[in-house]
Give the backbone structure.
Amino acid sequence: MKRLVLALLLLPFSAAAQKPAKPASTNAYVSGQAIYTLTQQFLAVAPKRYIGSPGHQKAEQFIRDHFKPEAAKGNFEADTFMANNTPIGALSMTNYIAKFPGKKDGIIVIASHYETNYPLKDIGFVGANDGACTTALLIALGQYLRAHPPEGYSVWLVFDDGEEALQQWSASDSLYGTKHLAAKWSANGTIQHIKTFMVADMIGDKDLNIDRDDNSTPWLLNLLTQAAKNTGHAGYIFKHDDGGIEDDHLPFKQRNVPVLDIIDLDYGPRSASAPEGYHHTAQDTIDKISAQSLQVSADLFLEMIRLINQG
């Protein structure tokens, strides 16, 4: 899945700073407990969601079912495409895009992948943190935006497919959905209207700390620092400087779109037998995430939307 380009550097951190808070600048907010419940429901319906599996189809239906009001308005798109050059042959994949029109010309995109890792299909890998909880987060953000339509830029929620490698992570075997979407939006002119492309990934970890990613746009990293201060969540970000992270934002960065990867790669205790902790193991289960961490993440995304609209 994701890969670090540079080594991990630990920075000073105070656990006492990790007191959750409701966004200071919003009158309504997304409930972390509601996101946790949605994650449970998603995992019950589609625990294994690798491409081509019955669970993948159920995951797609779960997403579609939560955006019927947008579909009725023509604001929900199923972007189906063929990934022709994967290591296991041609595969059909689908990105889903829920659109919430705003009042200003411009689009804020928030993306998360929803499938599970294909090479792990034969173990008990369900990806509670790695794909499930961020899918639930985007659904909850959609419910919020349905009740509170954007006053500034439009907000598009992208449930992208094929983020995971089909064989082994490489530049050619990864990020299929966002590569396709970046190319498509470049060709039809949509990309010129995108103000920010943000990724939500692995942000349900009970021991949440969002990484500083050198592949993210510097001014957006600064804005995330401000968002964390505004919401009372400064203790949850940037304990680690992870160098450059390879994730779904890269195809848009390569097209000069401002990007931000909101991710916590330091997930679970590391050992010789589990060098990445719970990441890409059968231990990535619902008990490893928390409603509190999901609350923090939701608060940060809502505040980022507000700050980006301020210009």
